[in-house]
Amino acid sequence: MEFVRLLLVFLHLLGMALLVGMFLVQRRAPAGAPLNQGWLHIAALQLITGLALQLLAPATDQDYNGAKLGIKTVVLLVIGALALVYVIRRVPAPKWLPFTLVGLVVVNVGIAVFWT
What we know:
By secondary structure, the protein is mainly α. The chain has four helices and no strands. Helix 2 packs antiparallel against helix 3 (66-89). The protein starts with a helix and ends with a helix.
């Protein structure tokens, strides 16, 4: 069970790095380009791995802070909702959108690291 937990942690951390990388990919896109679908896919990866880690907590003797995870989930759902709206509409992504998305990713990482 420990291997499964570590694999989920690995995928969760990889997803965080991919979200930051998606910001760099979006910055290289020409002006007027739609939002890259990767934002949506990686946000889904983060949600799935985070929820799986929460659900496996009793089986792996881990103790997680419910309030912290609730706030992190809400921030991730905001990222996913913004990505979903702009990916489905296929309109040019506003200039503020990638910065907002990566800012929310950084906030989520900050909550994960500094909220003890």
